[in-house]
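Take a protein:
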Amino acid sequence: MSASEHPGAGHRQRLRDKFLAHGLAKFTDEEALELLLTLATPRQDCKQQARTLLGELGGLQAVLDAPAERLAQVKGVGPKNVLGLKLVPAVARRYLEDKLLRGEAFLAAEQAAEYLRMGMQSLEREVFRVMLLDGRRRLIAIEDVFSGTIDRAVVYPREVAALALARGATALACAHNHPSGDATPSTDDRAITRRLYYACQGVGLELVDHIIVAGRQLHSFAQSGFLAGVAAEYQALDLEG
């Protein structure tokens, strides 16, 4: 071992080689976190920091989702480590958003699921997000239009429809988060979805889906059949009129 190397240099290089050969598929959470920490800690073994982070926070996802202030409280984790740990999920969200914006077509519940989870599952306040689509259901833009208290978001369907029209969209999908971790739709969630559908229909827009994000859980109003029921209800009223 040369004077410039530290005792863990060989292990660190093996982790790097393993990643370049196989990606993260053959890594444990501890190994993945250890490799990430080495990027900001060039001359120190990072195994113990990785083990402590996982032990205190409960898993790799929990570590990456943790606030910077909480990460800084973990023994052995310095400011550069915190920066790296917060940068990774931020870059991943940007990557997924850019990938959605370049997509051929948009199937809200499937293609947006991981983006929505990564972007909304850790929010402490409710946020209402709108994904604007063109005539071929390709994503035009993603907009956060409302944010609320810990348990409620105020949503104005006409403003959502006006935003979509102003951006040249012909369809849209909406999402909001439940900080409680329970994706079960509330009475208000159902009422908002119905009002959104009616507002969109009134100006010639299609509401593709409304998705609730709660931690790793998702609830899709399209997949549950609720939107189809609202569409039938709207059509019946239209025929009566």
Q: What stands out?
A: Strands lie at 127-133, 139-147, 171-177, 206-214, 217-220. The CA atoms of residues 175 and 211 lie 4 Å apart. The mean pLDDT is 84. DSSP finds eleven helices and five strands in the chain.
